[in-house]
Protein: Gfo/Idh/MocA family oxidoreductase
Amino acid sequence: MDEMIRIAVVGTGDVAMDHAAALTSSGPVAAKIVAAADTDRTRLDAFLAKHGAPAGYDDIDELLARSRPDLVYLCTPPGLHRDQALACLRSGASVLVEKPPALSLRELDEIAAAVGEPPWFATVFQHRFGRGQARLKALVDSGLLGRPLLAVCHTTWFRDQAYFDVPWRGRWDTEGGGPTMGLGIHQMDMMLDLLGDWTEVRAVTRTQARRTETEDVSLAHVTFANGAVASVVNSALSPRQESYLRYDFEHATVEVTHLYGYRDEDWRVTPAPGRDDVLAAWQAGLSGAGDVAAAQNSRSGHWAQFAKVLSSLRDGTPPPVPLEESRRTLALVAGIYASAATDRPVKPSDVSPGAPFYDSMAGSRAGSG
Ligand SMILES: NC(=O)c1ccc[n+]([C@@H]2O[C@H](COP(=O)([O-])OP(=O)(O)OC[C@H]3O[C@@H](n4cnc5c(N)ncnc54)[C@H](O)[C@@H]3O)[C@@H](O)[C@H]2O)c1
Structure:
């Protein structure tokens, strides 16, 4: 790859406006935004003016043919991700897609079939990339915390009716779900990043307060291959908003409380009696693994992930978060919806090819697309 990474932004709405600048200021790897595309000319013009991109298009195929980007930052509504990702990959461009990577596991597997080495496919799950998560992963790997026993994973956010009234939100065929898919997916991804493969989920979903085709709250119990169990809540109707993750290990409780991004001071470690060595190790940032030194930034966020994505592109290695890892998170979302709809415990094999919830997060729900 040339020294300068050529980036195109497709979908120049809220997320692109807020975060695209971080692509070109994310550390040692040089990158520039060479083009942008949006079907809404007003939004496109505002983006071009703010980010100084030289070329604007209303059509992704034209952008790919003329601007030949190395990387496309895909910020369109989720219902477009599969087709647009395939167009990028087939043109040879790698893809960095905003969550959720696709509407269903089937769509994600269709994308997987078009991925090469390069072109790569990565999903934005920016909260994996703050220093606290890296430090915790390293401590887990070192064995100092002991076995993970219990986790709490709460995304209790507030979204008013106007949020759901945006045409692509809260619909199975355009968003692929409600707050489980659209909001809580970040905390669940952080939890899976730490605890690994899940083996069973039991869930309920409810539509308590918003006019929406999907749920506005979900509750789940998740079992992990390592024996840990977790309680998960995803809500769009909680006036006191919070993102909360708690892990009870044999030798310490580790918690992080934040909203849309954490800093070092948002983490709390409570050692088990007689295990002050764990607290000392946390405070020193000591670890048996190498990622802590690389995570210079305390704050989780797009900037932190983008820096790693650009380094990976330069080095010819898979940029984070790779498809197989975002697939595991999407499978848990499918599992929650499947369990809630069927009133049964669900295993990963229950959302595999051939199963209704593999094809669509709406699965077997009557009347859903
Ligand atoms: N990582 C995060 O924390 C985070 C936060 C919010 C949203 N998101 C995700 O980012 C994505 C975009 O969300 P948003 O809030 O910016 O939405 P948005 O509606 O503000 O922006 C989407 C843009 O895509 C454009 N668009 C629609 N059809 C298009 C097409 N065919 N070609 C090109 N452009 C097209 C729209 O005109 C709009 O400007 C979603 O997947 C969402 O889930 C991620």
